[in-house]
Amino acid sequence: MGSEWVGHRPHPALHGLVAAATGYRQEGLAPGLHRGLPSPTLTFVVTLDDPLEMAAHPDPGQAPGSYAGLVGGLHTAPALIRHPGRQAGVQLALTPLGARRLLGLPAGALASLDCPVGDVLGADGVELIERFRAAAGWPARFAVLEEVLLRRVRPDSAPAPEVTEAWRLTVASGGRLRVAEIAGRVGWSERHLLSRFRAETGLAPKEAARVARFSRARRALQARAGAGQALDLAGLAAAGGFADQAHLTREWRALTGLPPSRWLAEEFGYVQDGRSPVSTI
């Protein structure tokens, strides 16, 4: 099996819009299914060679499909991606609060949906895919991505400051703050916060807290497994703000479809799970 992972530091003008960028190429895998998991960022994938085969979307009402490029909104259920033993492309993690400036729509418009890049970006998306696939080497591919995305950045389109602060508090606390406390801090009622927060991000405040808590726990579990340390799920639950190990396992199963240990056994090592790149450009 051969693997190539290339991290890229996004252009400064994309700060706050693109949280991470990773190029990947894997070959010689056993054909199977990979899980796309809930996270605090939108998914933006452009493939090389084979398209992305979505066997199931977070929204069960969305039909399976094939994508040369995909933009996925925030969600609380796993997606299933079918691969033939190889996968290659680039994945960007887009911030939900930057969606208006970069995509021209709020992240709430993409809640639990996976959409073709061309449907979201229009002609820019079609151009991006064609030029990305024709580019030779990772520096040229990332240059194409950024050239197209930079021209789309809108300087005067941002969410309400209260939503921005509520999102920051939710993520920074790892989902530990209660909604009432966040509402009080931003000066809104819980009901108003719920409505505006969900419309902007695609998640209700409690859902965002679940995703933030899970995302932090997932990274910690992967780090422990990668370092050869004991998984210590009880300790992970206590450190992550879960009531106990049983709560952690229930949440893991709800958000990934699998309990933690089985998820590690089936998924560890794929790019969407945040494995560290071997080089950075």
Automatic annotation (TrEMBL):
GO MF annotations, alphabetized: DNA-binding transcription factor activity; sequence-specific DNA binding
Keywords: DNA-binding, Transcription, Transcription regulation
Annotated signal peptide: none
Stretches assigned to the HTH araC/xylS-type domain: 161-266
InterPro entries: AraC_XylS_family_regulators, HTH_AraC
UniProt protein name: Helix-turn-helix protein
